[in-house]
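Most newcomers find our protein records easier to grasp once they have seen one. A learned vocabulary of local backbone shapes supplies the integers on the structure line. An example says more than a description, so a record of this kind follows:
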Amino acid sequence: MLARASARVAKCNPGNVFQVRHASSKEIRFGCDARNQMLAGCNRLADAVGVTLGPKGRNVVIEQPYGSPKITKDGVTVAKSIELGNRMMNLGAQLVKQVASTTNDIAGDGTTTATLLARAIFREGCKAVDAGMNPMDLLRGINLAVEKVLAHLNSVTKNVTTSEEIFNVATISANGDKVIGKLIADAMEKVGRDGTITVSEGKTLTHELELVEGLKFDRGYISPYFITNSKEQKVELEKPFVLLYDKRISSVKSILPVLEFIVQNQGSLLIIAEDVDSEALATMVVNKLRLGLKICAVKAPGFGDHRKAMLHDIAVMTGGQVVTEETGGSLEDAHQMPQMLGRAKSVTVTKDTTLVIEGGREKATIDERCDQIRVSMEQTHSDYEKEKLQERLARMTGGVAVI
């Protein structure tokens, strides 16, 4: 039996007792005093993170709530572990911590450098404001300086092309571990610049590198309630069914047949659709939380015709069909459910990305789809269309390297 989400209004009976808890009062600070305390917190965090900078950076020992202390040379790990007792100082530390986390999410490295740069900008900015400069003029100046710095960095950028160069960069990022550096270099050589590399726990005593079919796109889970791995804040589904829908899922009625099919087959489900309205989303979340249904919904990548093409690419990879009204398809058609749903060996979804590993379609069918994309690239005269087609081809052919 599937649970439906519904809103209920609680009635106050005479016998009920309600306890009201007042939120803690807010402390309000202004001007130089507030900036100086925030800067002190920023300095405290940056000093702790700064010792990890560079290939000869030192380790930091972090106390854990349970178990032995953690020893790390990763800047963002150090930053995330810091909470200061003084509320104003902690406010400054949290602002810089956000810089490190954002850098880690986008670039995957360089968090210590980003932290120290943020501290320097904050420190010099405080000096300028204390000397009488208008904060908005200061902001415009920083933005202009960023443009100049980016232009200079682009002019001196060196592209990493050889396997040896990749090995050297990877070894430094792995804290000097040449074994891991070699694994990463080999993985990049197999999947290419546009491929995807993922890390999973092995079942042997040695490190292994495996190239598997897979597809990754830049869309994450619609609701954090779908998360199955709370420590890493991601959804992990094993051998899930994959539902592809080119419209919004707007009602509970339309999605119930799919959910009932998944429950009957004791499976898990990845839904990729244009969007999911609140009523249908609430039903999915309730069934996940109350019945343990393994489910995740993500928005389809791209826009317009490009979105439809991407959905068909995913359908080819997973062996499913795109449910679309143009061909008379319907989510409520229970008889077509086995043919409609695709399959994958595993799916990993974060707040920003979705990775589908080893779909259920034969390689010959995937190769045929890739040939169709290549033909489209030759026929189009639009640089934008060629770029999008190249991205699709890279996703289809790059594969996924699993370490």
